[in-house]
Each structure stands twice: as C-alpha cells, then as structure tokens.
C-alpha cells in the first residue's frame, strides 16, 4: 500500500519542500513543536559518586544448568528507582529459589551501588521482581540476578530525570505494540535494543494465542519472551507497559469470564516489570493505568481501555478522573499512551472494525479533547491497528471545522499484520480523513526524542520482520504542529 504525507508548518500551510505520497515518501519522520518552556538557569550540582555497597553471598540452591533462559527486564522507572525482573525456568526447580540482585555503574559489576535479596516462588511461576532504589536520576545502571553459583544475563536501565533537576538532555523513548509470532519476526526488537532508549512504551498485545488457565497464560509469556531479540530489547532499557485485548482474549471486553480474566491479569503482572501491586487473586481487578513522570520533559499517562469500559465510557469514571487530574503538571510534554486509536477514522468499509476505539465512544473523545485543548504539548501515543499513523486529534473527526487540539502518533506494530479489511480501504482513508497526516503499515517501532522545544518523531520500519538488517533507509523529515494555534509563534 502506498503511503501519503501531508506536512504542515505551525501556521497550517502546506510545506512545499517535503516529498509527498506520489514520490513514495512515507510518514517516517516529523518534528512536533512544543510549547515554550521555562528555561532552567540554575546549574546542576556536580554529582557525587553513589556509595558503594558490598556484594551479598547467594544461598546454595539446586538449579538446572541454565535457569535464566527468559532473560531479564526492568520497568516503570522514576527519578530514584527502577523495577528489576527475571523468571527462572527448568525441570526440578525448588519451590523457592533464593536470589540476590545487583545494580552496578559498570557492566563488569566491579562497583555495586545497590543490592538485595528476593525469592522466586511457584506462587508466581518463579518470576521475581525487586525495586532497586536510591539511584541517581538521569543515570544509566547495569543489573543482574544471581542464584546459587549462576548469574543472569546483564540488563541496562536508566533512572529518569527528576522535575527541576536541570537535566535537559533529550529523552529517547520507544513506542510499539502487537507482536504476533505467527505474523512475523522480531526484527524491530533488534532496533529497539540498539537505540539506547531511556524508556520503551508498550501499548498492548504482548502475547497472542488462546489461553484459559494461569499456566496457559504463563506459557504464552514464556513462548514470546523466549525470543532472543525480545529479550535483548528488554535488557536494553526499562519498559512501561499497558495492555490491550490479546493479553486476555481477542477482542475481549470486560464481560469476559472472571476466572479467565483473573488468570490473564495474574500472568500479565507476573511477566511485566511493573511497579503495580498484583491484581486481586479472585477477580483479577487492578488499576493498571498509571503515571510515569519524565522530569522536566513532562509525563507519560498510560491508560487501560479494556478493564473499565462499559456501555457508556471507554475509560470508566475513576480512570477519567485520574486522567483529568494528571494533566496538570509542570513538565513540557503530556504523553497519553492509549492501546487504541484516539482521533478516529471515517472508514469506507461496511463493518467498522474500530467500534472498540474512541470511535465507539465519541463522547469520551469529545471530553478528552476538551480537557487537553488548553494543554500544549499533548501527544497521544496509540497502537492496535498494526499500522503507523500520524493524526491531528479533535473533538470530532467527522467535523472538518473542529479545531485540532493535539497530535496522535500510532506506532508501527512489531510483527502483527495490517488487517485486510483496513488495507483495502487504506488508499481512500486520506481522502475522507483530512486529519490523517500519514499512514504506513510496515512493521517496526516509533522512536520519539523529547527536547524542551521539539519532539523528533522517527518511525523505524523493517521490510522483512525476520531480518534485522532489512531496516528501511533513513526516513524523510517533516514538520507537524503539535496543535495548530497552540504551537509557539
Ligand atoms: Fe494487535
């Protein structure tokens, strides 16, 4: 399918120096302008070295030869801490595997700055998580687990900058979703691992496949996480994840059987390196929506469009109240992570496959648009449709006079294929959706680099999802306003 691009300057006029679709240009890159931000004038104090800590001895334990075959992961960082994760696997594991975790400033672990003990138990499929705290904001650390005489692979994680700490280094974020194994390979995870990201934002569909019991869900996580490229992506940076339907069942909504939902929620929690407390063991209920503060860069608001949806609202009243409360902050950018499309599309097809997006909840979208209209620097990040898109979000996509209030970037899917019903309609989408700025169904991931005055948007595409070397040539650049009328003069 051909891609198209309509690039605009902040006054809304068309740019003539940006190649258009007829020249084969893709919606690969853009800069999003930010609102003016208050420059930080105070010089950052010279950082003192973190105090060194002594290594802990591991307890003796009988283990299979290679128990760390699922690798390591980290997630939900803040300005002083990050969650560390691993799971041990193998025949004959004892019901409790005592471990030591270590955080170091160097990859050889010669200088430890944090360490502690944790237990992997059968209660949680021998997954283990630890909070490594007391770390310095804006700094990269290395971590590993040790059990008996065996050490895990080494992971890398960055503790995020703190509000007002004067760190104005651009923040490098990755965004993607949807990694169906049957559709393709994980070449994009190789690119994520190589991108030196500060944070990877995952917008759902981490697993695909039919499961009913908690063990079946755990097996799906183990199957997906066995991929070495996915492991490398996790080991390269911290992830913050929300979920979509496939973590429970295809196109599930909150009417799914409670026991099955509880099993799905438990397995998700066990396998994601998240700071969240575990879901209710009986019902699976938990508040997965949360805020990840990005220091002076702003904040990321991760939403859950599945668990709280009902006939009236997609987010549910509590999540809507939370979202409204989190929009008030002192940072530059407001990133809203949504597993599904926010801005909406008019589709020239008979059965609208977008009923389970904000297109099925137009009143939710109108309320959301009204809330962010006064907040410059709002960017919706979305997934689900297995194509990249950039859109201008307004209260009503069918109303050409509705004022755009934010940018939406739908990230490329890792491996899941663009649905055929949408692919057939794709050439017409731009004609009937003037707010759609660009679309490209290739697989890959989105890289978003936040600075105080701009966001660099790069879609990294792969021609062959089984071949990391098939990364597409460097994308063209374009300028898209964050929100016409709100962009700096
Ligand atoms: Fe998907």
Give a brief description.
This protein is α+β, with helices and mostly antiparallel strands and 489 residues long.
* CA-based shape: globular
Give the radius of gyration.
22 Å
- Could you list the spans in which at least 5 consecutive residues all have pLDDT below 50? 1-29, 36-41, 478-489
Q: Could you name the CATH homologous superfamily of the largest domain?
A: Alkaline phosphatase D (PhoD)
Q: Say what the CATH topology of the largest domain is.
A: Purple Acid Phosphatase, chain A, domain 2
Major beta-sheet overview: 8 strands, mixed
Distance between the termini: 36 Å
> Which band does the percent of strand residues land in?
25-35%
Spatial strand arrangement across the major sheet? 1-20-18-19-17-16-15-14
Find the structural class using helix and strand composition.
alpha+beta
Task: Provide a count of the helices.
Answer: 7
Q: Element order, helices and strands?
A: EEEEEEEEEEEHEHHEHEEHEHEEEHEEEE
Please give the CATH architecture of the largest domain: 4-Layer Sandwich
Helix percent band? 10-25%
CATH first level of the largest domain: Alpha Beta
Bound molecules: fe (ii) ion
